[in-house]
Amino acid sequence: MAKKNYKVGIVGIGAVGTEMIKVLRERKFPVSEIRVLARSERDEEIAGEKFHVVEAKPEAFDGLDFAFFAGTEGAKGASKLYGWEAVKRGAIVVDNGDDFRMDPRVPLVIPEVNGEALKKHHGFIANPNCSTIIALMALGPLHKVARIKRLVVSTYQSVSGTGREAIVELENQAQSYAGKKPMIAKAYPHQILFNVLPQIGGVKREMPGYTTEEAKMLFETRKILGDDNILVSATCVRVPVFYGHSEALNVEFEKPITPEEARDILAVSPGVHVVDDLAAGKYPMPLDIAGKDDCTIGRIRIDNTVKNGLCLFVAGDNIRKGAALNAIQIAEALTYQG
Q1: Model-level pTM?
Q2: Which end of the chain has the lower number of beta carbons within 10 A, N or C?
């Protein structure tokens, strides 16, 4: 699909859609047009640029080379209405929502981990869940060497994963606390400031006791790594952080792998940066990776509770690598393929 310039559509102008426009500009993706689609036609300033937003409807996708659907937890479903219609009209769809991630027709892709899956696309590609992306940026390179058998993951997910209204809510609660005023909770069922919420998503009926977010980490990990035998147990927790998800990973591998070997592998892996000096107080933190492309990995050590076990801690910007950047990288990979 090599061309000099591409006509690009962005469906949705929330936190992810805005970041997609930023990433397109920063990475100098060759665009002749950025067409922003939303529920209603209007003029908007997005990422410092003025756009005439057009109403999302089938004919609005005519002429586009790529259509990025920017749905998050709080704003999804547009790809169900218009995704395959956009493909019919000639666009390659990259969907950040979760409606088609497990569809056998749709590759689920992290370019640094399973970019080869793009060769089998039918015009529709899915972005994985933000937490899955951040975990597998660390685990993908290690899996290729030692093969993962079992993963226990605990996530610490920022409010931006819910959407703009949750970011505003955390800001407002902080201001209310400082002003000694009552805190109002609308985006979440409980106050998020000075609190953690051990529920992200709804109840996963097929997996009693687990949430939909936790189930995503199981099924998406298996699909991306191409191994349905990998066991995954996830506990996903919302924390009072604006941007950046952090995750504690306990991994059991088929083959022995030492912390030193893991550091050496990750040190030369694209899209990650090893920050691992416990004595010096250096380890991954969301504050350090907000707005950054790379995920950071640290606290790499032996897990003595299992054979061939390692513990790791990883952090990544959920709006950037966990959503917008990954989508643009998918498009870049497709343009390089010609």
Answers
A1: 0.96
A2: C
DSSP of 18-60, one letter per residue?
Answer: HHHHHHHHHTT--EEEEEEEESS-EEEEETTEEEEEEE--GGG
Tell me which long-range contacts 81-86 makes (C-beta under 8 A, separation of at least 24).
81/56, 82/11, 82/56, 82/57, 82/58, 83/124, 84/124, 85/58, 85/61, 86/9, 86/61
All structural domains of the chain, each given as residue ranges with its CATH number in brackets, are 6-128+323-337 (3.40.50.720), 132-318 (3.30.360.10)
Catalytic residue among 121, 130, 236, 273: 130
Q: Which of 121, 143, 245, 273 is catalytic?
A: 245
Beta-sheet pairing, 66-69 with 124-126: unpaired
In the block, which residue shows the tokens 């057009």?
Answer: 54
Question: What residue ranges of the chain have pLDDT lower than 50?
Answer: 73-75, 338
Query: Known catalytic residue: 190?
Result: no
Res 336: pLDDT: 73
Amino acid at 109: V
Q: Please report, as a single letter, which amino acid is at residue 104.
A: P
Q: Do the beta carbons of residue 297 and residue 288 sit within 8 Å? A: no
Give the tens place of pLDDT for each residue, 254-269.
999 999 999 999 999 9
Tokens read off for 94: 């990259």
The answer to whether residue 245 is catalytic is yes
Instruction: Pull the structure tokens for residue 185.
Output: 């909770």
Residue 156, φ and ψ in degrees, nearest 5: -130, 90
Instruction: List the 295-302 sheet strands across, edge first.
Output: 231-238, 148-157, 245-253, 309-316, 295-302, 272-274
Tokens of 273: 């940066």
